[in-house]
Each structure stands twice: as C-alpha cells, then as structure tokens.
Amino acid sequence: MKDRYLAFLAIIGAVCLLSLSYTSGDPTGYTIEELRTLYSSGDQSKWPAPHLFNEAKEGFQDIGPLPKMKFPEDNPYSEDKMELGKMLFFDPRLSKSGQISCANCHNPEIGWSDGSRVSFGHDRQTGTRNAPTLVNIGYAKTFFWDGRALTLEDQVKGPIENPVEMNFHMSLAAKNIRKIKDYKPFFVKAFGNGEVTEEKIAKAIATFERSLISPPSKFDKFVSGKKDALTDSELNGLHLFRTKANCINCHNTPYFSDQKFHNLGLTYYGRKYKDLGRYLVTQKNEDVGKFKTPTLREVSENKPYMHNGLFPELANIVMMYNAGMGRETPKADQINDPKFPHKSEMIERLNLTDEEVFDIVAFLKSLNSYKYKMRPPELPKSGE
What is the pTM of this model? Predict the structure, then answer.
C-alpha cells in the first residue's frame, strides 16, 4: 500500500512539473473568454503584449486588417490600365515559345501560385524556388525570395527575361505585342496613346497585380469587432502566434510579413537543394541562406511551402518551427568557411503541444478570405 501511495505521489509530481513547464512557455494566463474580449475589441492597445526578440523590435507593426492599397506616383491606378495589365498577364506571347504567360506560375485557380514545388518554364526547365502567391503583392516592398527587385514594375521584367522561365527579352516581348493591332486601342485607353513600350507593359501588369487584394478574412472581421468570427481553437492559435510560438517576430504588420530576410536553417549548405539566398544579391557573407519572410494571408491555398517548396502542409511547417528547424553544424572542411550560414537566433525550440500546433494551423487557415477565382480574359488576336 505504501509503495502504491508513493507511486501516486510521484505521478502527481510529474503532472505538476509538466503543468509548470507548459505555463512557463506561455505566462500570459488569460482565459479564452478574456482573449476573445481583448482581441475582438477593435483596439490593439488592449491586446496582450507580443513576445518579441530584440531583432524584431525595429520597425515592428502588429497584425491587423490591410490598409488601402497605395499606387506609386509614376504609375497611378486606372481601370483601363488594370484591364490592359490583366490581358498581358495572361498572354503567352510575352514568352519566346509563345506558350508561357505570367499566369502559368501564378494561376488564380491555385491561389495565384502553381501548386508545384518549383515551377516549369521554357522547354520544361525547372527553377530552383517555389513560386510565391501574387495576392496582396502590392503591399510588398521588395520582390522575389532574395529581394533582388525593388519595385513591382522591375519584378514584372524578371520572369520574362529569365532563360529558365519565359526566356525572352522585354524589347522582343514588346515587339510581339506591337504587332497585334487589336492591342492598340487598349494602350490608348490606358496611357493616352497607342505606342507599345517595355515600360508600359511593365506598368500595366504591375497595376493589375496591385489589384489582387484579399477581401476581409475571418481574422480581419474578428479583430474589427465580430466577436464570434473565430472559433476557440483559431483564437488560441492567434494568441499563440503572438506569444509562445514566436511567429509574430517575422510575420507581423497587416501583410503578415516583416519584409526582412532571415536564415531559418534551411540553406542546405554543401548539400542537395543548396541555395545561398540573399547572398546572391548582396554578396555579403552574413546574408547566406537568408530569404524574405513570405506573407501568410491566404497561406493555406499556397502550398507547398518555403523557398524550395519542400514542405507540403502547414502542419509540417509549424512542427518544424516547434523543433527549432534544422541544424547547421559545419563539417570538418567547413569550419573556417566564411560563407557557412548561421541560423537566426530567433529560431528556437518552442515546446508546443500537439493541440497547440493544431490551434496555430487553425488560426493560419482563418487568414483565408475565399478561393480567388478569375476567368482569363479574351486576348487581342488580329494583326498577327
């Protein structure tokens, strides 16, 4: 009997230790109803404080509904320009083969991506990076996974001229469009004259892409005052996202991206899938393996994940973060390698329970508005 009593005490002690361990990971101690009241108040100042590393504090802005889209002064919005850009976006005559359009890698039926690990391009060549979604791309400050384009207009030119993607030159793409007489009235409406130039093509497509904006999601409605818009699981996931799970450190602002570059330990340095990331743009050793933080809006419609597309489901990603991501241990011949990558200090083991992982995934799914559908436009044909 005494042995059974001692064993019972030991079990109670172990349970208490586990409980202490869990609460120390999330010391906020709010009930779900308290969280519901605070987060749905419409007042961010009432929200529980986010858990931030020092690295994340500069320029930090909390998550919330998207602001109104801003268009650049040298490329203001017009309906006619947007409609022209839409046609050009779906037109394969911007490619050398005449078979690949922007929509091949950014398909509206697949979350404005292509659902592939990496995309197919000219002559069925494959790239090395996953095609990111274009939804809300107008809120971005730099473009591509490595940030090599500083404006959306510059980004438009990249895939057209990339030999692995559309394999054309902008001047030749413009020449192709110039031959199609039925395009001329659309250029007149958009720009005041019918002259077809590289700059006009880029501006029109960029204007169309800036029009791809998510309607309010369940999350947006909830934090704007609709108290029952999120389930308890989604709400707990929101709170974990901002606290114990550390997600808010990179996925902040209404765009759900700090638009900075971080090394998550997925460089695969010296191995298959190696990608030096931001280093290829800056040539700075400290940028090896750094990639731009992607937006999380509409994220469950944009699998697979990460710059290399190696992670098929959201749960895979959350579990990887929970484990502290991959190790970066140099081999003997890499110990003195100045380019050997170093994982961000913000990546650490999280000790999330299975239920907490599930709740975070549920919250991420609440960032979807709906499956964005768009019928391809009828393209100008005469004069070819």
Answer: 0.90
